[in-house]
Amino acid sequence: MINTVKRERLDHELISKIEQIFSNTNKNFNMKFWNGESIKYSDKADFTLSFNDREEFNRLLMHPDIIAFAEAYMNKSFDIEGDIFSAIQLKEELENLEVSGKDKVSIFLKTASLPKLNMHTKEKDKENISHHYDISNDFYRLFLGPSMVYSCAYFRDENEDITTAEENKLDHICRKLRLKAGEKFLDVGCGWGSMIIWAAKHYGVEAHGVTISEEQYKYVCDRIKKEGIQDKCFVELKDYRDIEGNEVYDKIVSIGMFEHVGTKNLPEYFKIMNRLLKSDGLFLNHGITKSKNYKVAKDESEFIEKYIFPGGELNSISYVQDIMEQENFEVYDVECLREHYFKTLRCWVNNLQANKDMAIKAASELVYRTWLLYMTGCALNFKGGSISVYQVLLGKEQKMSGFNIPLTREYMYKDI
User: Fold this and answer.
1) Nearest to 411 by CA among 229, 253, 174
2) How far apart are CA 369 and CA 143, in angstroms?
3) What's the N-to-C CA distance of the chain in angstroms?
């Protein structure tokens, strides 16, 4: 029996639904309500669910689904006090429950792959990218840190901070690609420019970045100017489909970009990368994938499509590699970084929470709550294995017999 304070002031129907929903959980949390009443499950609760509005609470109990609960959190109808990761994990314990004949209860967001509804025209992709990336550079800096790298970091040990781990990732990619001074290097979907600037400064390449985000483009241009490396680093506001030429680049990288391409466009995407790459060149594709047998819930897809990541699609690593080979790439190396992305997202969530007031000022409280929910859910999906992230090192199928990489992986971990 749950321990309540002034329980009689909550009507019987609400109490009954509360008991039904939370009867089989770990009871590592407590609840507070709009009228000052509370339900106490634990003396050492990991978190407290604080419901602020009776009408909204009753509506959620009658029609529980991911979008309704996520929007209620985003709109401040309830708060999570304490460990948000433990709170999101509560969803796993509730997922088989049915209420009032409705869909399975999914109280908290668990993000994964995304719907295949959007047409990936150049115009639509630009609109989608703007939705995701043009919120505010200041907002992103608050949780990404000074590196401004919005993708999985690379932790060499448990105690490394996020900035060091992101620099590790940039250098890890440069080593895999065996970058050398004077080589022409392309970053497709270059974000805030960290990769091209790192490669130009530390490896002496002629670095070229492309992005279709207006805010990112302006940021990178300014950053290159401040670094004083205009002679060997430049960026264009350009769709990857508009990059011209044949066998232009010695090395190409794509980090966290191909998720925006769309399943139907993957063959064209890899065909273009192959066209742009020189005969003995290397291409590294770093991107998120989903488990082959994972089926994402319709409500989850709709939430992400609406609020976070319109037009994105995930596929299994086996499917992606099949497309790579169909487009005349040889797969040289595949590395899973799933645990690294879980650690990365935990750092980002902690940073965002630590900078709550500034994040709200830079964007809005709605954006702050939405991204907190989104990144926490993503972290738990990486931890659970429904989604992952891979770096795949590729080379063109060679016209003449021979080998294009060293015998062992040692070159990735020592100075070139």
Assistant:
1) 174
2) 13
3) 65
pLDDT digits (tens, 9 = 90+) for 354-377: 999 999 999 889 889 988 988 998
Q: Where in the chain is the domain with CATH 3.40.50.150?
A: 122-413
CA distance 408 to 190: 29
Calpha distance 206→310 (Å, rounded): 33
Residues acting as catalytic residues: 378
Closest by alpha carbon to 284, among 337, 227, 219, 344?
A: 337
Superfamily of 122-413 according to CATH: Vaccinia Virus protein VP39 (3.40.50.150)
Report which of 102, 383, 152, 409 is spatially closest to residue 287, judged by C-alpha positions: 152
pLDDT at 374 (0 to 100):
86
Q: Give residue-wise pLDDT tens across range 229-269.
A: 999 999 999 999 999 999 999 999 999 999 889 889 999 99
Count of alpha carbons within 13 angstroms of residue 316, beta-carbon side: 9
Cβ count within 10 A of residue 56: 18
Where in the sequence of the chain do the CATH 3.30.1050.10 domains occur?
Answer: 3-94
Burial of 28 from C-beta contacts in 10 A (0-12 / 13-18 / 19+): middle
Both structure tokens of 379: 């972290």
> How far is C-alpha 268 from the chain's CA centre?
23
Under a CB-based contact definition with an 8 Å cutoff, are residues 114 and 312 in contact?
Answer: yes
Radius of gyration of the chain (CA): 23
Task: Please identify, in words, the CATH class of the domain defined by 3-94.
Answer: alpha beta
Helix residue ranges per DSSP H, 247-287: 266-276
pTM of the model: 0.78
